[in-house]
Amino acid sequence: MVHRVFRLFGAATLFLPVLGHADPQSASPALEPLDLTHHWAGYFSLAVMVAAYVAAMFEEATELRKSKPMLLAAALIWFTIVLVYQQQGNDAQAVAAFKVNLQTYMELLLFIMVSMTYLNAMEDMQIFAALKSWLVTKNLTYRQLFWITGWLVFFISCVVNGLTAGLLMGAVVVAVGKDNPKFVSLGCINIIVATNAGGSFSPLGGISTLFVWQHGMLEFTQFFKLFIPCMVNFLVPALAMHFTLPKDKPTLAAEVVVLPRGARQVVFLFGITIAIAVSFDMSLHLPAAAGMMAGLALLQFYYFYLQKSQRRTTPAESEFALFFGGGDSNANQIEIDRLDIFEKVGRLEWDTLLFFYGAMMGIGGLGYIGYLDAVSHTLYGQLSPSLANILIGLSSAFVDNGTLMFAVLTMHPDIPPGQWLLLTLTLGVGGSLLAIGSAPGIGLMGQAKGQYTFSSHMKWCPAILLGYFASIGVHFLVNADTF
């Protein structure tokens, strides 16, 4: 409950009036948007959005899913805006602004939908369970496991969403450290820092990086300039924690996980899908979501093939299973209902996705009302861009980094690529400062309940903060030519 209050209240009070300023040229080249900041419609819309956030804060107490008040708020805000513009005889301008915000959300939704569908498919294929089993049974020391899980999640999170990657490695840490709570606590902190750092040097690593890529502020390959700063961000606190880790080995029972037929091919298709999305964006200048949808078609056709064919597991697939801890070359055929692609889509976090729709569209409406300029002038007018981006990154310990990135993007600040990279870095790794600062942290508090806590994370906040500023310094050093 505490993390909801911190993050949602922070978003409501600090950045609600910032987001979603649609480009007026996309709506009507001849007319400027109306300034409704002191109009009854502006006050009403702001009150509605704050009320929706308050309702979302108390989701656990009221048992009212957070998406419901946000969807209603978005609808009321845009109904109000269009009504006022209609009275002025120019409702088409407001409708066009709504469509601009809607298109932004739809591109994000389709990209995430395909990505999460593939992840659900790989989960059903026992890919993640096999990886966990392979790690657990390698007879490694606590220190070795600490570094292996950290490095693995650092690289996995550049293509897999942070929560999934964090929970995957968190399951390994909890399993091997069941008799050593100190290792579990340190391992979870390490995973959170590594996950957030790894997701910051790839446009596929999180919503904030995806936003920057989709808006064309940085090209796909430019994100990889953050690899060294992100690695520094991960290594500084990890090295500090290394010397407090136990040196002995955990005693664990072996576990065998058999990969079903088609597992390797699904992983391969996911890689192909990412490649298609990148090539669509870079070569054809189509939205990355178009490439992801093409990849979804490939998965659907492959599932159709698996459903219709009756052959047993091939030797090649058996070797892959053995590598990850499996060993049964006569694994049973996957059931038909497990190959239903729409079942994978249905298991997405729809409440969160619809909540995000309400937040983007509602806050987008508040921005279109006219609250954007004052905040933009304060951040990027009175402060230097570097200081503004560092402060925004620190605030991501309390407010969702996707919301903050969308806020800055809608300000349209005139900053060089180096500053966009700095903002991407700080927003990506700033959430590591607190346990409630990112989705992996919140997820691991539930997964390792009683062993990894808010207070145990706070003890290492100075080391994480040192890594935060160290990564910024390295970015200024190695990417000086981008400023």
Automatic annotation (TrEMBL):
GO terms for biological process: sodium ion transport. It comes from the Bacteria. GO terms for molecular function: antiporter activity. Belongs to the NhaD Na(+)/H(+) (TC 2.A.62) antiporter family. It is a multi-pass membrane protein. The keyword Thylakoid does not apply. InterPro entries: Cit_transptr-like_dom, NhaD-like. The keyword Acetylation does not apply. Its main location: membrane. One of its GO terms (cellular component) is membrane. Keywords: Antiport, Ion transport, Membrane, Signal, Sodium, Sodium transport, Transmembrane, Transmembrane helix, Transport. The chain crosses the membrane at residues 40-58, 70-88, 108-131, 152-177, 183-211, 223-243, 287-305, 354-375, 387-408, 420-439, 460-478. Residues 53-428 form the Citrate transporter-like domain. This is Sodium:proton antiporter NhaD. PANTHER family: SODIUM/PROTON ANTIPORTER 1-RELATED (PTHR43269), SODIUM_PROTON ANTIPORTER 1-RELATED (PTHR43269:SF2). It is found in: Membrane. Residues 1-22 form the signal peptide.
